[in-house]
DNA sequence: TATTGTTATACTCTATAACTATA
DNA sequence: TATAGTTATAGAGTATAACAATA
């Protein structure tokens, strides 16, 4: 475990540690904004000026559509998002940020996009190396577009 | 958003995307093993042959100690872990993996340590570059040792 | 008095299944 | 028939507060 042979595996483990170390920051931010972690996550996934069907949000949250109803209910009752039926197919509900929602999301985004200490402290050439390696990682893999839920099947 | 000036910020955003893309794999694995995500996470944080106080597990999970009681209850009732009072301070309960728990954790570990497609598909020199950059990231920051919960204060 | 873990409580998240309304 | 979202339900995660046992 100290030094796996495969550099990709070691990179992956280090990457996991960075994300773990980041978690408290995310939780503290949600707390600060008066949102649950899931609500903050959902808010972040909505882009200003872009309407998103509830089913797409469910996909991006990797959860069942029935959850999204509640999460959206709570965000809507706080005046952060709105839902309206789609013109083409009135079964579909389109989500959009309100001004207040966009404001809050902007604050959240600004906080969350600040790299954690591990990365921020790197010398510039290492930051560049990291960025370049990650860029090419996404060049390698065909862009998956909308994240897809893996047919959730679990406890419940 | 397409190309932030700061390479660290762009690296961080790409890193976040990789972790997002990884989430379904984690959920599917938990499902497969018949564990909740939190239970799988806890199981992963227990090292074979190492006894861990419940409070330390709470710290590593970034959650309140009162949650750990339930999570540990469920893992224990499945025969995956055990708790026993510490000799020095009988208030403290030490957690350890059972053989079955260690077996399941090994399976989980093997799955989770496989890098996601984005990283696995990189050419070797890019894997090395990524690993080296991440290694130096951890050299920069003093090792935090036991993760510390950020004084959880939230909805409840 | 202070601390570790538990219990009681309330809310949120989660999936499944059944339902409504559209298509 | 099929699909998007809702509702009902039940179990799990979460924090707070009060508590027991121990220090």
Question: How would you summarize this macromolecular structure in one to three sentences?
Answer:
The first copy, chain A, has helices at residues 7-33, 37-45, 54-61, 65-77, 99-112, 117-120, 124-140; strands at residues 52-53, 81-85, 93-97. By secondary structure, the first copy, chain A, is mainly α. Chain A has a domain at 32-138: Arc Repressor Mutant, subunit A (Orthogonal Bundle), CATH 1.10.10.10.
Question: Which regions of chain A have little confidence, pLDDT < 50, spanning 5+ residues?
Answer: 143-156
CATH architecture of the domain at 32-138 in chain A: Orthogonal Bundle
What amount of the residues of chain A lies in strands? 5-15%
The average pLDDT score of chain A comes to 90
Number of helices, counting only DSSP H or I runs of 4 residues or more of chain A = 7
- The CATH homologous superfamily name of the domain at 32-138 in chain A equals Winged helix-like DNA-binding domain superfamily/Winged helix DNA-binding domain
Q: How many β-strands of chain A, per DSSP?
A: 3
Structural class of chain A: mainly alpha
* Biggest interface and residues each: A-B, 62 and 63 residues
Helix percent of chain A reads 55-70%
Termini Cα gap of chain A? 35 Å
Largest sheet of chain A: 3 strands, antiparallel
Strand ordering within the main sheet of chain A: 1-3-2
Radius of gyration of chain A: 18 Å
Indicate the CATH topology of the domain at 32-138 in chain A.
Answer: Arc Repressor Mutant, subunit A
Order of helical and strand elements of chain A:
HHEHHEEHHH
* Shape, principal axes of CA atoms of chain A: elongated
CATH class of the domain at 32-138 in chain A: Mainly Alpha
Multimeric state: homodimer
């Amino acid at each position: 475990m100290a030094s796996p042979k495969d550099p990709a595996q070691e990179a992956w483990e280090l990457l996991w540690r960075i994300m773990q170390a980041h978690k408290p920051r995310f939780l503290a931010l949600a707390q600060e904004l008066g949102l649950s972690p899931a609500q903050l996550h959902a808010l972040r996934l909505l882009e200003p000026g872009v309407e998103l069907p509830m089913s797409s949000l469910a996909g991006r949250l990797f959860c069942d559509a029935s959850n999204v109803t509640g999460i959206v209910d709570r965000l809507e009752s706080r005046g952060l998002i709105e839902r309206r039926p789609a013109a083409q197919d009135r079964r579909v509900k389109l989500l959009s940020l309100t001004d207040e929602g966009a404001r809050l999301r902007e604050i959240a985004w600004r906080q969350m996009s600040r790299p954690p200490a591990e990365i921020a402290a790197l010398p510039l050439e290492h930051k560049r190396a990291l960025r370049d390696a990650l860029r090419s990682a996404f060049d390698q893999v065909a862009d998956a577009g909308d994240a897809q839920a893996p047919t959730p099947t679990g406890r419940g």
